[in-house]
Amino acid sequence: MINLEEIKEQEIDLDKVYDYAEFPDKVSGRCNNCNSVYFKSSVKGGVFLRECRGCGMKKSI
Questions:
Q1: Residuewise pLDDT in 10s, the chain (61 residues)
Q2: Are 49 and 57 in contact (CB under 8 A)?
Q3: pTM for the whole thing?
Q4: For residue 40, how many C-alpha atoms fall within 13 Å in the half-sphere facing its CB?
């Protein structure tokens, strides 16, 4: 399990897919990394994936 304090101290890894339950948005509907509101969404294998169009940060919802 990922500790929120550890993530805040670390730089966000854009190659990793974060779990929304463990790493929710700081501001609802905005990217934690670049504060963008534009996302690409996809569903694969029953998993909803949200990717920021600005920086590429991914979250599994």
A1: 555 555 455 678 899 999 999 999 999 999 999 999 999 999 988 999 999 999 999 999 8
A2: no
A3: 0.77
A4: 9
